Every structure is written in C-alpha cells, then in structure tokens.
Amino acid sequence: MKQWPHAPLHILEEQGIYMVTCGTYRKCHHLDRPSRLTFVQNTLFEIAEEFGWRLQAWAVLSNHYHFIVSSPEHPGTLPKMLSKLHTVTAIQLNKEDNDPGRKVWYQYFDSRITYQSSYFPRLKYVHQNPVHHGVVHNAENYPWCSAGWFARFAGNAFYKTIQGFKTDSVNVTDPYDAIPINIENKSGVKPPHSKHESPL
User: Fold this and answer.
1) CA–CA gap between residue 99 and residue 93 (Å, rounded)
2) Domain 17-163, CATH number (from 3.40.190.10, 3.30.70.20, 2.40.50.140, 3.30.70.1290)
3) Do residues 199 and 153 make contact, with C-beta atoms less than 8 angstroms apart?
4) d(CA 64, CA 107)
5) How do the domains of the chain map onto residue ranges?
6) Strand order in the sheet with 64-70
7) pTM, whole model, 2 decimals?
C-alpha cells in the first residue's frame, strides 16, 4: 500500500515564480488585529528581501497568508526563508500572548508557476484574497495585501488584463475562514513598492 506523506512535498530545483500558502496551526486567528497583521507583513517584506526573493503579490489574513514570489538563482533557500519568517513571528506573537513555545504556524504549500495562463489568475487570486474570504468588499482598501500596490504601480493595460481573469477555477489550497479586521487602525504599514518586483 502506498504511504502518503504527512506534509506536502517541496521540490525547489528550478529558478522561477512560486506561489506559497501557509496557515496557522489549527487555523487559529492569531493575526486578529492590525498590529499583528502589520508585523507579519513587514517581517515578510524584510525576510524575503534578505533571502533575495522578490514579492509580486501577497495577502496576510487572520489565520493564513499567500504570496507569489520570483526566486533568486538558487530557489532552494525558500524553506530557510519561511523557517525564519515563522520563527521570528511566532516568538513575537507568543511573547504578546504570554504563551512561550506555542505552535503558531502549520505546514506550507508551494508550487512553481510555469505557464502564463496559470500565473495571471493566481496573481489576481492573491491580490483579491481578502475579498474571497469576505473580509473587505474592495481588496485595494485592505492594507495587508498587494491589491492597492498593484493598482498604483501596474501599468493600466496590465492592470486591466489581470482584472479580466476569473479565479473561480484556480486550484489553490485555501481551506481557511478568515475574520474581518478593523482597518481604521493600520499604523506601521510600510510602503511596499521599494521592496518588491514591479508589476509587468
């Protein structure tokens, strides 16, 4: 009988564009306030830049995140990058909750995007993830995703092209039920445009 692995298989041999999804352990809503979303998003920006991965789209919600990223020459550094991201953020969240050693993050899923026809719908899916989960009506108003950044810096033609794609048939691991966040208090959100790959 075939033995199935308990965690997703990660094959990182080729340079290219990857999509990554990760949820919290038991889907707990650890990122249930603006300060925590801001902290995790800013930490993602900093650590991705440190490892040479360039973000193209991202969404951080109350119990999971997605991002699309172009790899450096050696994409095998992705597990180390995510390990650092999860370690740094878990330590801080556990410190705030006075719960040292608590497991915060669960297994992540990554996939290399090899076709333009697959890339475009996934790009829109990540930009629009807060809408998909009913957190906001307009993703461009959600400070912890890339939709507003994309609207500002993508060329008009490319923006319209991406907006024209449907995402209902996109096969993405996303079994989460995110909760709305009060977006009025969003202090500390860093301008992302200097840290990420410009839209095509």
Assistant:
1) 8
2) 3.30.70.1290
3) yes
4) 11
5) 17-163
6) 54-60, 64-70, 17-24, 105-113
7) 0.86
